[in-house]
Amino acid sequence: MLQVFKSIVAEFISLPMPTIAAVNGHAAAVGCALALCHDYVIMRRHRGVLYMSEVDMEFTFPYCFAALFRAKVGLAQALRDVMLRGAKIRGEEAVRMGIVDSGGA
């Protein structure tokens, strides 16, 4: 499955046009990573969360996940919260942390 995901990430990040992910619910694990593959991420303010459940399950992050998150999450504190603490981040907080572009409605 990891090989398939890597190819999906490569396809998304190399598209010759901007892409937008609309997260209207929970985006956990691969869903969270898939959302971050896009150029713009919009998210519902209160309804869903971004969450890396691998942290709670004590799984090791594949290299491609770590590289994607380092490239897309600019603030070191936000990166630690997502990848080390397994924080469940709602829309408004994700905007403040610079993870998503909009956390409305």
From TrEMBL:
Matching PROSITE patterns: PROKAR_LIPOPROTEIN (PS51257)
Listed GO biological process terms: fatty acid beta-oxidation
GO molecular function: delta(3)-delta(2)-enoyl-CoA isomerase activity
Keyword Membrane part of the UniProt annotation: yes
SUPFAM superfamilies given in the database record: ClpP/crotonase
Any one cellular-component term (Gene Ontology): peroxisome
Record carries keyword Membrane: yes
Spans through the membrane: 20-42
InterPro entries cross-referenced by the UniProt entry: ClpP/crotonase-like_dom_sf (IPR029045), Enoyl-CoA_hydra/iso (IPR001753)
Keywords: Membrane, Transmembrane, Transmembrane helix
PANTHER family assigned to the protein according to its UniProt record, in alphabetical order: ENOYL-COA HYDRATASE-RELATED, ENOYL-COA HYDRATASE_ISOMERASE FAMILY PROTEIN
Protein name (database record): Uncharacterized protein
Organism ancestry: Eukaryota, Viridiplantae, Streptophyta, Embryophyta, Tracheophyta
